[in-house]
Design goal:
Strand order of the largest sheet: 3-5-4
Strand content: under 5%
Order of helices and strands: HHHHHHEEEHHEEHHHHHHHHHHHH
Shape: elongated
Length: 399
């Protein structure tokens, strides 16, 4: 078959388009788009932009071919493809670029943040300042090139709040799965999250700190081995979030009780780390004390790491309602009710401390039950520290 229109190269295509009256804002970009579409397939896509008064000319309403091509290219390139296929095409295309690996790495880091969802201080997104450090970029122009490529080729967008993300969380998930969980993954998820933990640990941005707590929690069911290793990494950088307690439970279930100061990553070693790193967390003390109560007796207030010592430290450092209730109940079980509220570290003394420091319904109920069981009902509500007095005091404090 003889074709009346022989093929012409990209340069010749641009010359021909210029002859037909089209202007070029950026010839290099036009070459890029034409290499994907081809000159002869271009015409059908340009009808909406043509001047109908001159049907044989492609100029008119939009005379800049660069802009027309920018609109047409994604329409043409995505016809008949699923979104997963489109994104895979994007990644494979970027890999062929000179320096494309750095752009792929940028995509990897960005979606590693974005798939985590919501943190304590809002949705988790990649901060541009952190991204530059992760990519080891110090040249501002180099970063701008990557950012431009992400916007034009890969469905990413920046914002006025110094974050960069995909235009949709579903896009982030597709990128993430293909980059990190494909049969032959392009990127190493452990290496990327280790880098993120390292940079987040040095960052002063509060949302970056959220990442340290969320990463292991996100992977605990999906990839437990990865989650455990990332917890270890975060601890090595001096962080211990309450989301890591799930990891301690894992060690307890595995009978890895261990000892303090020794046996790294045993349950006891982890609790000691939590105490040294994050002693202000009120959740720590009730979990830790209950753990020790299951291992031995209640101990002594002067014996480090015994349940009584743990409860007492919690009361001093991070008092909260549940701690007083659990400690009082632990003393009740060993029949240490105390003669009165002045008997140090007795159940009655603990309830009085709780009433003074963190008055709540649970504390008043616990204390009133102690007095009812001790038959200290009281003649009336004026009989101090009797069950009637406690109930009345509790109603007035917490109606």
């Amino acid at each position: 078959m003889n074709y009346s229109k022989p093929p012409i190269d990209i340069g010749q295509q641009i010359v021909l388009l210029k002859k037909r009256g089209l202007s070029f804002e950026d010839e290099e970009k036009a070459e890029h788009y034409l290499s994907n579409i081809s000159f002869y397939r271009l015409r059908a896509y340009t009808y909406p932009f043509q001047n109908t008064c001159r049907p044989n000319k492609m100029y008119g309403i939009l005379s800049c071919i660069t802009y027309i091509l920018q609109i047409i290219s994604p329409i043409y390139a995505t016809q008949g493809k699923s979104f997963d296929e489109i994104i895979i095409d994007v990644l494979n295309k970027i890999l062929l670029w000179e320096g494309g690996e750095l752009t792929i790495n940028a995509i990897g880091y960005i979606v590693c943040f974005e798939i985590l969802g919501k943190g304590k201080h809002g949705i988790i997104y990649c901060q541009e300042t952190i991204l530059k450090k992760l990519l080891n970029i110090t040249n501002a122009n180099q970063y701008l090139v990557i950012k431009k490529q992400l916007a034009e080729e890969a469905f990413f967008q920046g914002s006025l709040t110094n974050v960069i993300n995909t235009r949709n969380s579903n896009i982030a998930k597709i990128y993430f799965d293909y980059l990190f969980y494909d049969a032959t993954p392009i990127l190493d998820k452990y290496a990327f999250y280790y880098d993120i933990i390292r940079e987040a640990s040095f960052s002063k941005n509060i949302s970056a700190k959220d990442v340290l707590g969320i990463i292991p929690q996100y992977f605990f069911e999906k990839d437990r081995e990865l989650a455990i290793q990332l917890v270890k990494d975060a601890i090595s950088y001096g962080f211990f979030w309450n989301t890591y307690y799930e990891y301690i439970d894992e060690e307890i279930n595995a009978k890895n009780i261990g000892s303090y100061n020794f046996e790294e990553y045993s349950a006891r070693w982890l609790y000691e780390k939590a105490f040294k790193i994050n002693s202000r967390d009120p959740m720590l003390y009730t979990r830790w004390a209950e753990f020790e109560l299951n291992q031995s007796d209640i101990g002594d207030i002067r014996l480090e790491y015994t349940p009584r010592w743990i409860f007492y430290m919690g009361m001093k450092i991070a008092p909260f309602v549940n701690l007083f209730v659990k400690w009082a109940n632990a003393e009740i079980r060993v029949k240490n009710l105390g003669k009165n509220v002045d008997t140090d570290y007795s159940a009655r003394w603990i309830c009085k401390q709780g009433m003074d420091l963190k008055p709540s319904k649970d504390i008043f109920v616990t204390w009133a039950n102690i007095e009812v069981n001790a038959r200290n009902i009281g003649m009336d509500i004026n009989d101090e520290y009797s069950a009637r007095w406690i109930c009345d005091y509790g109603i007035n404090k917490n109606p």
